[in-house]
Design brief:
It is a single chain. By secondary structure, the chain is of the alpha+beta class. It has a single domain (4-25, 32-67, 76-148), classed as Roll (Endonuclease I-creI). 42% of the residues lie in helices and 17% in strands. It has helices at 4-14, 49-58, 86-96, 104-119, 130-148, and strands at residues 15-21, 37-45, 61-65, 79-85. Strands 1-2-4-3 form a four-stranded antiparallel sheet. Helix 4 (104-119) packs antiparallel against helix 5. It is globular.
Length: 161
C-alpha cells in the first residue's frame, strides 16, 4: 500500500487541487443563493503505476489520454490522470497534509470547503446562506491564486564533507 508520505511528495510535484463550479462552466445556477462548488484533486503522469496506488488507497478514477502526435507537442506519450472528488478528496488531503511542502495552502482550503459543505445540507427549501456562499467562493479564489503562483529558483546549499 502507498504511504501518505509518498503520496504527499507525489502530490506536491504532480497533482493539483481544484474547486470547480458544479453547475458547469457558463451555466446559470437555478437558485442564485445556492453554492455548487465541488472539491477535486487530480494527478497526471505518463506512468499509471503511482496513480493506481493512489486509487487503491483513496479511491477515485483513472483516465488515459493518447499523446499528441504534433511535432510541437511536449509529450507524445499516453498520459494518465487520477481524479478524486468531494469527501474522498478531502480524506486524501487530510491524510497527506502533515507531509506536504508546496501545496499546503491549496490542501487546507480544499479541506475547509469539504467540511463547510458537509456541515450544511442545502435543498430547495433550505438554500445556502449568502455568507456561506461567499466563504466558499473565497476558498475557490484562494486555491486558484495559489495554483497560479510561481516559485522563484531557490538555491539549495551543497554540503561538503
Amino acid at each position: 500500500m502507498i504511504s501518505a508520505e509518498y503520496a504527499a511528495g507525489f502530490f506536491d510535484g504532480e497533482a493539483t487541487v481544484s474547486i470547480i463550479n458544479g453547475a458547469g462552466k457558463g451555466k446559470k445556477v437555478s437558485r442564485p443563493n445556492q453554492s455548487h462548488y465541488i472539491l477535486t484533486v487530480s494527478a497526471v503522469n505518463s506512468n499509471p503505476k503511482p496513480l493506481k496506488l493512489l486509487k487503491e488507497r483513496w479511491g477515485g478514477n483513472i483516465y488515459s489520454r493518447a499523446g499528441d502526435q504534433r511535432a510541437s507537442c511536449f509529450s507524445k506519450k499516453t498520459m494518465w490522470s487520477w481524479q478524486i472528488s468531494a469527501q474522498r478528496a478531502a480524506r486524501f488531503l487530510i491524510d497527506i497534509l502533515p507531509y506536504l511542502c508546496v501545496k499546503i495552502e491549496q490542501a487546507e482550503a480544499g479541506i475547509a470547503l469539504a467540511a463547510n459543505i458537509h456541515s450544511f445540507h442545502a435543498g430547495r427549501s433550505n438554500p445556502v446562506p449568502a455568507a456561506m456562499v461567499s466563504y466558499r467562493t473565497s476558498l475557490k479564489d484562494k486555491v486558484m491564486e495559489a495554483n497560479k503562483r510561481e516559485y522563484p529558483d531557490v538555491s539549495v546549499p551543497v554540503r561538503v564533507t
